[in-house]
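Morning F.,

Quick status update on the modeling queue. The single chain you submitted on Monday has been processed. Sequence for confirmation:
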Amino acid sequence: MKPNTQQLLDLSTQVRRDILRMVHAVNSGHPGGSLGCTEFFVALYQNIMDRKEGFDMDGTEEDLFFLSNGHISPVFYSVLARSGYFPVAELATFRHINSRLQGHPTTHEGLPGIRIASGSLGQGLSVSIGAAQAKKLNNDSHLVYTLMGDGELQEGQNWEAIMYAAAKNVDNLIATVDLNGKQIDGTTDEVLNMGSVRAKFEAFGWDVLEIKQGNDIEAIIAGLNEAKSKTGQGKPICILLHTEMGNGVDFMMHTHAWHGKAPNDEQLAKAFEQNVETLGDY
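Structure tokens below.
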């Protein structure tokens, strides 16, 4: 049985605590984008994706997810652990030497749930397209999901992949763009204004929908279900997910400053006051 809305909200709060604790403990990591995508990951893994018990790299007969903007690994690790892929206690090893939970996910550590190395931006969509085409060749009707950052769209490889996916009718793919308008050096408009992302995807032949409330669990679930309903119709699907970087921690919101900066002791305590323990800290 799928969790109800309150259970998803409680999990989201606990995931935010995990993110904050992980980056604080090593004074390193990327809390801003992780916090902004918390509800998306919780909805995807707890409500949307058809997942098998256990984990294998082949991923046959189940939905697959690929994280392209790998620097938001804290939210990915937390949701994987709290979805049963590996012990929650292992989150305490984040970014430690010889840990399976490195700053950017990689496969050679053998961490369940991680299918690709993602740190070099712009590559996740290409991998996802390959996986989606493999499913078609294997007569596997399951879907492939991927998440990209909006700043990441400034990488040219994305647009080659976007062109290819439409030309080859990769219609079992749902690619989500975290449209928070911020990247490490400032706003996306200041760093490299991309104009209308929606118009670009549509011009490349994609079916595009938007989730305006990208930090609202119910809105995300509704949007992802709408995207699923559009698969199999000859076009790849793009979701523009409007999120707030640093969501859930007031002093981290509405700024790019916390893209890659960890909170100090006082800031962590303040953030915890806004995100009380719900499911137990690791």
